[in-house]
Amino acid sequence: MKHPGLGGVSQPQLEHLLGLVRGAQLGAPLTPTALQAHGLGALWDKLSWLAGLERAGLEAVLAVAIDERVTRPGPRLELVWTGPEAKVSAARDTAVVVRDLFSRAQRSVIVASFSFTQGHEIFEELHIAMRDRAVEARIFLHIDDRPGVAPEAAARDGADAFLHANWPFSGKPPELYFDPRTVAAGSSINLHAKCVVVDDRWALVGSANFTHNALARNIEVGVLVDDPSFAQALTQQWHGLIDNNLVQRIE
Questions:
Q1: Which of 5, 147, 201, 214 has a CA between 20 and 30 Å from the CA of residue 184?
Q2: For the chain, first and last CA: distance in Å?
Q3: ∠227-128-207 over CA atoms, to 5°?
Q4: CA distances from 176 to 24, 90, 104, 162, 249 (A)
Q5: What's the mean per-residue pLDDT of the chain?
Q6: Using CB atoms within 10 A of its CB, is residue 121 exposed (0-12), middle (13-18) or buried (19+)?
Q7: Which pLDDT value is given to residue 1?
Q8: What is the distance between the alpha carbons of residues 150 and 133, in angstroms, rounded to a whole number?
């Protein structure tokens, strides 16, 4: 059976693993228990194919993978912009970029934003990707606390409001997540990140929310990064929050 390679392991994680192996803190052959002891248990599915290697072989594979990351061509970056522009501009329109990213998706999409009001327009391509290509989508929402309302109920109400305003499509909706701290009584904490990650390859990070003003009227700036290492690291940040129950799914 063909092994999955190390594409799903970020460069910082590879470097951390190599340091542990070289320092004899992580023995070989690899085991899920040993990885878990160093806070790397979530990587076992991506590293299990290395379990048959002794220390020298494991060290060599990790070193080659890191060298390939270091020496390969750098990430491709594009400026993404909303708002007025000079006649000569190299920027791409934010709404166009978001729709294009959703239309490319073959496996997975992550979306995070503080505010959503344009989902009925901007999410159509995501809906098609989920329906026609079984793309897995996760959306991270900011949900405010509501005086006198239990946090769990506030989260469910926030999810219902999001779907009503932004997801008019039939079929299974995306998985929705929230930061429990934002719905605690009197909270001043926000889920303020704005990003899109597609297929662990492309990542859009910027200032624009998923609102009409942010996508059509405000001055907003972002960067589209075509680089698997960066995209995987960003994905793993979100998945780490899920795995450690720091964000929770709204059922």
A1: 214
A2: 36
A3: 45
A4: 41, 34, 21, 9, 6
A5: 90
A6: middle
A7: 46
A8: 37
Residue 172: its pLDDT value, please? 93
- Tell me the torsion sign for CA atoms 114, 119, 125, 129: positive
Six-digit token string for 246: 């720091």
Instruction: Concatenate the DSSP letters of all residues of the chain into one string.
Output: ----TTTTS-HHHHHHHHHHHHTTSS-SS--HHHHHHTT-GGGHHHHGGGTT--HHHHHHHHHHHHHHHHHSPPPEEEEEEES---SS---EEHHHHHHHHHHH-SSEEEEEES-BS-HHHHTHHHHHHHHHH--EEEEEE-----TTS-HHHHHHHHHHHHHHHH---SSPPPEEEE-GGGGSTT--------EEEETTTEEEEES--BSHHHHHTS-EEEEEEE-HHHHHHHHHHHHHHHHTTSSEE--
Domains and CATH numbers, the chain: 11-71 (no CATH), 76-249 (3.30.870.10)
Comparing 162 with 13, which gets the higher pLDDT?
162
100 Cβ partners below 8 Å, 6+ apart?
none
What would the two tokens of residue 79 be? 């400026």
Question: Considering the entire predicted model, what is its pTM?
Answer: 0.72
**Contact at 8 Å (CB) between 98 and 202?**
no
How far apart, in whole angstroms, are the C-alpha atoms of residue 1 and residue 3?
A: 6
